[in-house]
Each structure stands twice: as C-alpha cells, then as structure tokens.
Write a structure and sequence with these properties.
Elements (H helix, E strand, L loop, with lengths): L5 H15 L15 H11 L4 H14 L3 H6 L2 H8 L6 H16 L8 H5 L6 H11 L9 H10 L9 H16 L6 H14 L18 H4 L17 E10 L8 E5 L10 E2 L2 E3 L7 H13 L2 E14 L4 E13 L9 E5 L11 H15 L1
Parallel strand pairs: 1-6
Antiparallel strand pairs: 1-4, 2-3, 2-7, 5-6
The chain binds iron/sulfur cluster.
Iron/sulfur cluster (SF4) binds next to helix 9 and helix 12.
C-alpha cells in the first residue's frame, strides 16, 4: 500500500476541524492560544472520560482552581472531592503533585519542553504531546484511543494495535502526520484527529460518508472499516466478592458511623470508604469476612447486623460484587492499621468527603433506607 499523503491529510483534518468541532469549554480560544494550564487539565480529564462528561468537571475545576498556583495551594481532599465520580483517582493526585512541582521548579509556568513535562507526575507521552501541540503549537504527536482507531483504519493495519511494535508504528504515523501540518497548525491537526475519532470515526459505526479523509482511507476503500482496529484476544477479568460495613457506634441511624480513608497510593488512594475487604477462602461467610477485615484494618470488634445493599462494579482489571451490611461497634478503639485515618461521622457529614462511586451508592442506599 502506498504511504498516505500526510500533508494532504493534515490539511483536510485542519479544515474539517475548523468547521465541525464541538463547542467545549476548554476550546474557548483556538489551539495554540490556550493557557497551557487549561490544556493540561482538560487533556488529563479526557484520558478516561467522554468530553460531554468532562465538560462540567472542567468548568467546576477552573472555577475552583483557576491557576497552577491555586491547585498547588489546595488541600488534596478538596481536589479529590472535585474529581469524585470521574474515576482513576491517581490522575487527580498526580495533577496536585505536579502543580506543586511546577510552582517549585518552573516558576508556576507549565513547561514547554518534552523532557520537563515527562518528569512531572502523571504526564505520559500522550499528555506531553497534547500540551506541546495544543498549547504551544509544537509538531509533537499524540496517540490516544481515538487516534489509534483512525490511524489503524486509514492505513488498514492488519496487526493487533495493542502489540508493542504496532504501537511504535502508530506513534510514527502520528508523528509524520503532525509534522506534515502547516507551521503553527500542529495543535489544530492533533485536535482534529482526536475529534474525528470521537465524532465520526467511532468504534462501532464509523460515519465514512461524512469523513473528510474517506478518499484516502485504506480500510474504508476496502470495506473493512468495521473490522479495524484489530486487538489481541482479551483475558476475562477476575471477579471478587467484597464485604463492606456501615459500622454504627450504637443503634443504626441514631448514632455516628465509621468512615476510613484508604492508603495514599494505589487503587482509589486517599478516598474515604465504608471499610471492608475481599472474601477469602477461609472466611465462613460474608459476615465472618467483614468481622475479620475490620479487625485487620481498624483493630476493632463488630457485630454484623442486617444486609443493606449489593453493588456490582467493574474496575479496569477486575470486577467486584460489594455486599454491604449494617454493623455495630462492639469493642476496641479504632486504629489506622490498614487505612490512613478514620472518623466517626454523622450520616449527613459523609458526603463532604471524597468517596469512590461504590461508596456513593452505599450512601444513597443508606439515605433511601433512612427516608423510606
Ligand atoms: S473513512 Fe471511515 S474508517 Fe476511514 S477514517 Fe474516515 S470514518 Fe474512519
């Protein structure tokens, strides 16, 4: 297959993007003229989140933390609370940490060099490329899920795109494309490529009739667009049963309840939760699992009362069924053994703390039971 005419593709993309792009709050100014801070925040939010969902979060974020300095000075708990519901909380922790480094080492200005950007927590090849091209108009490539799909279809790639060699090839293609864009249009070219993937070259039903690149697209010309990109077969993700407790100091709904803060690092790091843990094969049942977990995590004895709710949730690499029970504190002073901190709180105070989505659902079930 002949190599695509990248200069022509870049031009078509830029022209299409100028007329068809969605109005989104981070696009208040054209690419190349946006504050690097807002490009950085929007690109991190967009990594695992649809633009429509990210828009509201972005506006609230910029209102609350309008500058790098404001973010650096913020309390991590406030940052996590604002991020609540977006998932992948390491992104929020890394933004906060990186803001502090930018203030300390770069005078509060988001750096315009790849090496300095990549040295910041949470800034990978994609984020660095997005900031350099969209904020600073440098001809640096980007490769997210949307871009991979568009490029794999344009070139009708026959190998699974998750293979490392194919990933490298895709990065090269993305680089050739952005380098072929007219000077000072690198940001528009990259943003156009992502926008095309998000709105026209979609995973299930690409709308090739509306696509500005259709006459150069090898997969579409061969009628194979829905067969691309290929991926390696997936292993099914493991499933765990987990027990969690709403542990009351006394009678349910008439006393305070116990909330624990997860360790700073790792899955859902720094968020608050109704404590509990995974069912092990030696646990006689879920109640025994909950008593053991609470003893290990907080060093207290509890009595398990009635069932409250069951929640199913899928994380990236595993799925859980979360069985939640009311419980009553029996003895022992809580200690932060398997958690960072713990607090006795009134039920109305819980929502002030950043909670994972599963614990927000537990809280909703609690309120429903209280009011029902
Ligand atoms: S022609 Fe179709 S498959 Fe090819 S890039 Fe455009 S939308 Fe995607």
């Amino acid at each position: 297959m002949a190599a695509p005419d990248f200069a022509r593709l870049a031009e078509q993309l830029i022209d299409w993007h100028a007329h068809q792009q969605r109005l989104l709050p981070w696009r208040a100014a054209p690419a190349g003229q946006r504050p690097p801070y807002s490009v950085w925040i929007s690109e991190v939010m967009l990594q695992q989140t649809r633009a429509e969902t990210a828009a509201g979060y972005f506006e609230r974020w910029m209102e609350r933390f309008p500058t790098v300095q404001a973010l650096a000075a913020a309390d991590l708990q406030d940052v996590l609370k604002l991020w609540e519901g977006l998932g992948y909380y390491a992104r929020a922790r890394n933004l906060h940490r990186a803001a502090r480094q930018i203030v300390e080492n770069h005078g509060g200005e988001v750096p315009a060099e790849r090496a300095a950007l990549r040295a910041l927590p949470g800034v990978g090849a994609y984020t660095a490329g997005a900031i350099l091209s969209i904020a600073f108009n440098q001809p640096e490539p980007i490769l997210d899920g949307n871009v991979q799909r568009v490029l794999a279809r344009l070139c009708d790639l026959e190998q699974p795109i998750d293979e490392p060699a194919v990933q490298q090839h895709l990065w090269q293609l993305a680089r050739m494309l952005v380098e072929a864009a007219p000077p000072a249009a690198a940001g528009d070219c990259n943003e156009g490529l992502m926008e095309l993937g998000a709105t026209v070259c979609t995973p299930q039903k690409p709308r090739c009739l509306l696509c500005p690149l259709a006459d150069s697209c090898a997969a579409a010309l061969a009628g194979r667009q829905t067969e691309r990109p290929l991926r390696s077969p997936r292993k099914s993700s493991p499933h765990y049963d987990v027990a969690a407790g709403v542990i009351w100091a006394g009678a349910p709904f008439q006393s305070q309840l116990l909330l624990a803060q997860r360790p700073a690092e790792g899955l859902l790091g720094g968020l608050w939760e109704f404590p509990g843990g995974k069912l092990e094969k030696d646990d006689a049942d879920l109640a025994a699992c909950l008593r053991r977990e609470i003893d290990e995590e907080l060093g207290i004895a509890i009595e398990v009362l009635g069932w409250l709710t069951t929640i199913r949730h899928a994380y990236t690499h595993f799925r859980i069924t979360l069985h939640t029970f009311h419980a009553r504190h029996v003895s022992g002073q809580p200690q932060a053994i398997g958690c960072q901190r713990w607090l006795w709180l009134g039920i109305e105070e819980v929502a002030r703390y950043p909670l994972p989505v599963t614990d927000q659902k537990i809280l909703a079930a609690l309120h429903a039971q209280k009011n029902g």
